[in-house]
Amino acid sequence: MIRVGLLGPPDRLEIGRLSLRLEERGVEPVLLDSRRPPEFEITAGSVRALGEDLLALRGLMVIDLGLPATGDGTAESVAASRRHLAGWNAALEALEGRVRVVNPPQSHELHGLKPFETLDYQWRGLPVPETVATSSPEGFDRLPAFTHGTIRKSLVGGLDFTEAVEDGPTADRERLLAERGAVLIQRRIVGDNVRVFVLDGRVLGAAAIIPANPAATDSRRGESLVRRVKMPVATEQVVLAAVEASGMVFAAVDLMREGASGRDYLLECNSAPFFVAFEKASGFDIASPLADYLAARRGGTRSEALGPQPRR
Predict the structure, then answer these.
(1) What is the three-state SS of 188-228?
(2) What is the pTM of this model?
């Protein structure tokens, strides 16, 4: 039987949904709890972790690499987390070319390289909001005054909420930087946050996530309405180019669609996105094509992977 690994905490809804879709296809889901000690064994002919031979899997979905939950912030616990992460990264790299891995380690690292990710998109000519990353109070003034002001974000994707930047004295900025170390300052785009799911070079669906509070700067906070949207061809090309540049096979791409101009601005690509709630709210099926992809041979189709299928 074909087996596909699902790496992440067992209570993550995405693991449950993907397990169901794989079983519907006659594929055995192999649950790999990333919060457990991985017990790696990597040799010239073996890549083992959590008691499983990863080379025997057809595909592996990386949902959460799971740094140790017992870390207390001490140098020793940070070092343990880094060893844990290094082990998984080494194991996943060793699978390259042998097992379908969604997504490879380098794509997960983008969450901790947010200034570079934004700059890389800009270098490639993709439309991104004007941005400055800074650990200095003077950095707040590197951007000109915009009609709707600016927002600040964490340098690590998903670590903090997006907030409006309040004009104030240097002391206020120094306190903020003392708390956070450094921040990302960006022109505020007033409009709709659009999330686009992409798999293997094609768009699975796009929807606007509209907060109930029109003044909200982060669609993850509070209640929101999800509405399907149609993307212009030019925007779809931007999305696919960003995913390819990020080295991802499967991704959720976040955009801001400016209300006044209708222009789409690229924000980021997410390598291990939550999709169960998105499926429910939008009606798009994300898990089924993802299960098909994971079960297929490298370079093959799902039917080639599963063999003759009964007629329905």
Answers:
(1) CCCEEEEEEEEECCEEEEEEEEEECCCCCCCCCCCCEEEEE
(2) 0.87
